[in-house]
Design goal:
Helix content: 25-40%
CATH architecture of the largest domain: 3-Layer(aba) Sandwich
Number of helices: 11
CATH topology of the largest domain: Rossmann fold
Number of strands: 20
Low-confidence stretches: 1-7
CATH superfamily of the largest domain: P-loop containing nucleotide triphosphate hydrolases
Distance between the termini: 71 Å
Length: about 450
């Protein structure tokens, strides 16, 4: 007999009691249906994460998130915790979760924005550019005390075109933001003019166009099927054992997410964020290994020739004991060498190809492309990104970055792309120390 599917509560509260049986599926469905974003690690209201039998939730009206440790359908531990150090604050017995709707989101963002701006305000100098959401760009003129109807108000004074003044009470500080563009070419707006509203409307239309395009691409991908690539044992275990370092917990978790995606039957579109040296490439190698050992091709696209050379050496080293052909396409090769590699790609002889934008050449026709790995996608130009977009229709896509651009990060946060974070440094990793110095023979010898 098929178990009846419980109707998901929408716009209602969810009650969780430590003494009652815990419904795992119902809780996850409720959070997803009521505005909560599923993330790897929660940081703010309206987010939740699931790691095995541990569910972290940051409810709408809580100052700190809540952690639920479950065993079967029972709650073993139920506590509020500090998201910065992960330490418990207090035990809980009952929790009422409210929907994270648009009002909750706006209130949360408003508070964060105001707090952030108040912090930034201390760094402002006179005549720095500042933006009012309704009136546009003006010049910061300091904090002033203004008396209105015999009441004193602390206000931010902003100077506009023709030396017109606008006084914004500090309690309305969320209406202001720091100007983020190049101030050298910025024009001061005129109070009462429609110019700012026109520019703002144009920007909104452009954002809507981009959003529609992104959602369309995501929708098309969700309807398509992709080849399933299973773990190739016993070869994969041998490949893992050859890794000379110990995996961090984050690496292990992200590897599991990646392997699950490759075997899901849907086109993967995952972004892995992590600092330099935290092991993003090793995770990508493991995905590439299973795809290539299954008989499909893998393309690894990087923005610079130096990165191409480094990744090629790493791939060659890691795959040397396995029957996989690794090639490199870049300007370091001669034209004849690149032409031979293109022939191997077209024929399917090349299993894994590492390359710069040269890999996007229209002459290259992969015989059976199964996975596309993109390193630091934000460094590619518009035409190159369009070519990448044409490649990624029904293949598995993995992007790696240390510094995601806002648009890429937003796509992940709203669910258009899956997001994985590697935030744990490998054991005994030394911090990178960068110095800009005059050439010095003594220091040069020490580096060699």
């Amino acid at each position: 007999m098929t178990k009846p599917r419980l109707k998901t509560q929408i716009n209602e509260n969810l009650n969780i009691n430590i003494e009652e049986k815990f419904d795992y599926e119902r809780t996850i469905n409720y959070l997803s249906a009521n505005g909560y974003a599923r993330v790897s690690s929660i940081r703010e209201n309206g987010e939740f994460s699931v790691k095995g039998d541990v569910i972290d939730i940051f409810p709408t009206d809580f100052k700190n998130p809540v952690r639920i440790n479950i065993f079967g359908d029972e709650i073993e531990r139920f506590e509020e915790f500090n998201p910065k150090n992960q330490k418990p604050i207090q035990s809980l017995f009952r929790l009422i979760i409210k929907p994270f709707n648009e009002f909750s989101f706006n209130q949360s963002k408003r508070t964060i924005k105001a707090d952030t701006f108040l912090t930034d305000l201390s760094t402002f100098e006179e005549d720095d550019l500042i933006v009012h959401v309704d009136h546009g760009i003006g010049k910061f003129n300091g904090l002033k005390n203004v008396t209105v109807l015999e009441n004193d108000h602390d206000c931010i004074e902003i100077t506009y075109f023709n030396n017109d003044k606008l006084y914004v009470p500090v309690e309305n500080i969320e209406l202001l933001s720091k100007y983020g563009g190049n101030s050298e070419f910025a024009q001061i707006d005129k109070l009462g003019s429609s110019n700012w509203q026109f520019r703002k409307a144009s920007a909104k239309n452009k954002i809507n166009e981009i959003a529609e395009d992104l959602i369309k691409v995501a929708a098309e991908r969700s309807l398509k099927e992709a080849t399933k690539y299973t773990v190739q044992e016993p070869y994969y275990s041998n490949f893992i054992n050859e890794f000379e370092f110990q995996d961090t917990e984050d690496q292990a978790n992200v590897t599991s997410e990646l392997l699950f995606d490759l075997n899901s039957g849907l086109p993967m579109d995952r972004l892995i964020c992590g600092d330099v040296g935290f092991g993003k490439t090793e995770v990508a190698l493991r995905g590439a290994f299973n795809v290539a050992m299954s008989g499909a091709q893998v393309a690894f696209i990087v923005p610079t020739t130096l990165l191409c050379s480094q990744h090629y050496e790493n791939f060659t080293k890691r795959f040397k004991n396995f029957p996989l052909k690794v090639d490199q396409i870049s300007r370091l090769n001669s034209t004849s060498e690149n032409n031979k590699i293109i022939e191997r790609i077209d024929s399917g002889e090349s299993d894994i190809v590492v390359g710069t934008h040269a890999l996007l050449n229209s002459k290259i026709k992969f015989k059976k492309l199964g996975m596309l790995i993109i390193d630091e996608e934000q460094h590619f130009g518009v035409s190159q990104k369009e070519k990448i977009k044409s490649l990624r229709s029904n293949v598995h896509v993995l992007a790696l970055t240390a510094t995601p651009i806002p648009r890429t990060l937003q796509m992940s946060l709203v669910g258009l792309r899956d997001l994985s974070i590697i935030s744990t440094a490998p054991l005994n990793r030394q911090n990178i120390n960068t110095e800009v110095i005059d050439f010095n023979d003594e220091k040069n010898n020490l580096c060699n």
